[in-house]
Specification:
It holds the Pfam family ADH_zinc_N. By secondary structure, the protein is α/β, with parallel strands linked by helices. It has two domains: 178 residues, Medium-chain alcohol dehydrogenases, catalytic domain (Quinone Oxidoreductase, Chain A, domain 1), CATH 3.90.180; 116 residues, 3-Layer(aba) Sandwich (Rossmann fold), CATH 3.40.50. Helix content is 27%, strand content 25%. Strand 1 and strand 2 form a beta hairpin. Helix 2 crosses helix 7. The radius of gyration is 19 Å and the shape is globular.
């Protein structure tokens, strides 16, 4: 079967013929229906700092995976052929696309520990987006942001993660303000319940934001969040658009700002997002492309040309 594989930084993905996987003990094989594209995939292609996260090279990228179980290994009791599943990338089984071959192909093998059941009325594209973008956003806002009803919350970046995170904050009862440089999505930001939208989070300095979640992570955005959040407020760093930032430790200390890193989430976060999807209250924009368009899609992500979450539809 064919797979888009990563070989090295600053080199394009290579379309390669690879062997079909088989189910290991306590594992399953899944026919991949959808695979999400993420800014961290772009980072992998651009920044050598990501190389240490890989178990091998070449490797099939794609850590946002949804599909149907087609084979079960010895010891698997809770899953059967035909089950609709998403892969949680943060369990001890490891992350697809990093610890083992991921979703930019047609089949994948994974330990049963990582599986999360997709409700029947949730699409595979939503299922893929929920595994990382949804999980990460839910965890950043609810667990690490500690957002609750009545809070004033700033969201930096209204892309694949930020659009979900912003809506989760709205559903939690917060008053949400969004910073997004792409004015084309401002109307959409307001439609999901944002109180206001601007190009920079600094424009909301006078609001007195209790929590700011930075889903962009381009260095300057982190610095601006620390300068903007209220005294005693909380900044949650999620985005890794750049792997370094220069911040004012003076402001961090004198304003007693809490700066928290937020990576991924848990199977419970994935399930929580799937449950939101199933109710229809959370319905993020998903842009679908074909398997062949994955490299082009990553280039569009790099250029900031994608609205919502970008998902490759691998099979019907």
């Amino acid at each position: 079967m064919k797979a888009w594989q990563f070989t090295n930084t600053h080199e394009p993905l290579v379309l390669t013929e690879v062997d079909e996987p088989t189910a290991a003990p306590n594992g399953v094989v899944v026919d991949i229906k959808s695979a999400g594209l993420c800014h961290s995939d772009v980072g992998m292609l651009e920044d050598e700092g990501w190389l240490s996260t890989l178990a091998k090279r070449p490797i099939t990228l794609g850590h946002e995976v949804a599909g149907v179980v087609t084979e079960v290994g010895d010891g698997v009791t809770d899953w059967k052929v035909g089950d609709r599943v998403g892969f949680c990338p943060t369990t001890s089984a490891g992350a697809p696309g990093y610890a083992f071959d991921g979703g930019f192909s047609f089949k994948a093998a994974i330990d049963q520990e990582a599986l999360v059941r997709i409700p029947d009325n949730v699409s595979f594209s939503q299922g893929a987006a929920g595994t990382d973008a949804g999980m990460t956003s839910h965890h950043a806002v609810i667990a690490n942001g500690q957002v609750k009803a009545g809070d004033k919350v700033g969201i930096i970046g209204f892309g694949g993660l930020g659009s979900i995170g912003a809506r989760v904050a709205v559903l939690a009862g917060a008053e949400v303000y969004i910073a997004e440089v792409n004015e084309k999505v401002w109307d959409q930001a307001r439609e999901i319940g944002a109180k206001d939208v601007a190009k920079s989070i600094a424009d909301f300095k006078e609001i007195g934001l209790d929590v700011i979640v930075d889903f962009a992570g381009f260095g300057t955005t982190t610095a601006e969040a620390i300068e903007t959040v209220r005294r005693g407020g909380r900044v949650v760093q999620v985005g890794m658009g750049r792997l370094e930032s220069t911040i004012s430790t003076k402001t961090l200390i004198l304003s007693e700002v809490t700066l928290v890193g937020s990576q991924g989430g848990t199977k419970e976060d994935v399930q929580g997002v799937y449950d939101y999807f199933a109710t229809g209250k959370l319905n993020p924009t998903v842009t679908e492309i074909s398997f062949e368009e994955i490299p082009e899609g990553l280039e569009k992500l790099k250029k900031g040309e994608v609205v919502g979450r970008l998902v490759a539809k691998i099979a019907d």
